[in-house]
Amino acid sequence: MAVAEIGRLLRGFRTPQIRTAQEIPAIPARRLAKLVLGAALLSVAGLTTYQQLVVRVSREAVVNARTVSIRAPIDGIIKAGANAPGAAVRAAVAIGQVEDPTADDGRAFQLQIEVGATEREREAASRRVVDLERARTEAMAQAEAYRLGRVRQVELRIEEARASFAAAKAKEAETLASERRGNALRGDGYMAQATYETLFHAREVAQQQSIAAQKRIDTLTVELDAARGGTYLGDNYNDVPSSVQRARELAVRIDETKVMIDQLQQKADTLVAQLAVERGRLQSRSSAALASPIDGNLWTVQAAPGEYVRKGQELFTVLDCSTVVVTASVSERNYNELRLDEPVRFRVSGTGREYSGKITQLGLTSTGRSFAISPEERRHQVAVQLADLDRNTSDSCAVGRTGELIFEGSGGGFSARLIESVRHMLGLV
């Protein structure tokens, strides 16, 4: 049975015949096109498989940078707008202004009223001091006139007293001579004893009158000295005239008024200082400049001139070109194999430009809001710092420019390492 089967197989075997070139039929063009298309599809599939398994690349990569928000410091109307997005801005240079025409100036108005009232009160007190000094001058002049008159009066009384003293002395001398004559006559028996005694008593009275006249002169001399010093002596008083008392009262009132003027001046100075501070606050509440804290490019303009804005409302965002990075999303497999400072290459889409860099951050969910282009949430995001990106002016701050990241690390999986080994064996690297 086996021999029969072998025979049938040998009979069915035919020796191939060699055909010439003229005998080979031509391949149709349609079939050739299909063949080329299939080869292209196989090449694309091979490259895709190679890229996914061996060369780790990002899904989405974009040039990105952090932004700084400029918010309205007060409620108000934007009076001057900024330039269009993309314009360069300088730090501390105003790019807009907000003015509030309805700012509360009640406190400043009240302080201004108090300052005016204090100034008027101080001026009135100054005028009152002038009037008081004039009245005091008049009272002092009246007191001086009274003093001079009183001194002259006492001087005349002293002269009168001296005249009386001289008369008393003359009478004393006369009575003394009469007593001497009467004593001689009484010794000779020509005068009665009673008459002599009358003469004796008259002499005694004359002597006492002389003494009284002298004491009167002494009293008037003391009164004159006191009057010259401004003190006036009387029978039941030792005081000054009402004009002097008036002058003294006016002096006290002048001192009190001057103290009040000093207090009013201090109060006015304090109110003026408070008014200046309040005006500064009012100025900050009624008008505020919008300036960028950094140098950069204007990224967004969210309010137009004439628009009413609220305090804290975001008006502009400025792109900080000093923080340019490339953010990208990667697959979960690649994300788990990436490490910080791992070298990468960024290839700009549609161009042959490539830049070298390293991974600076893994995961951007918490910090993504500060970027100009916010990374997608719940995606595996990475940030890459490119050292030589600043050298090309067309890409240095071209936020939004897309491309792909090529990770050059050796952290691939088992399949990638196997294919990488085969590539080394075949000399494809």
Would you mind describing this structure in some detail?
This protein has 3 domains: 53-68 and 319-429, Elongation Factor Tu (Ef-tu), domain 3; 69-101 and 286-315, OB fold (Dihydrolipoamide Acetyltransferase, E2P), CATH 2.40.50; 107-267, Helix Hairpins, CATH 1.10.287. It is 51% helix and 19% strand. The two termini are 58 Å apart. It contains 7 helices and 17 strands. A hairpin with a 4-residue loop joins strand 7 and strand 8 (238-239). The chain has helices spanning 2-12, 29-53, 106-188, 193-228, 242-286, 332-337, 414-425, and strands spanning 56-57, 60-64, 67-71, 76-80, 88-89, 94-99, 232-233, 238-239, 287-291, 296-301, 308-309, 314-319, 325-330, 343-348, 354-362, 380-386, 402-407. Helix 3 (106-188) packs antiparallel against helix 5. Strands 2-13-16-15-14-17 form a 6-stranded antiparallel beta barrel. The radius of gyration is 63 Å and the shape is rod-shaped. It has 429 residues and is of the alpha+beta class.
Largest sheet: 6 strands, antiparallel, barrel
User: β content, as a range?
Assistant: 15-25%
Q: Helical element count?
A: 7
**Classification by helices and strands:** alpha+beta
The coarse silhouette is rod-shaped
Q: What is the residue-mean pLDDT, rounded to a whole number?
A: 79
Number of individual domains: 3
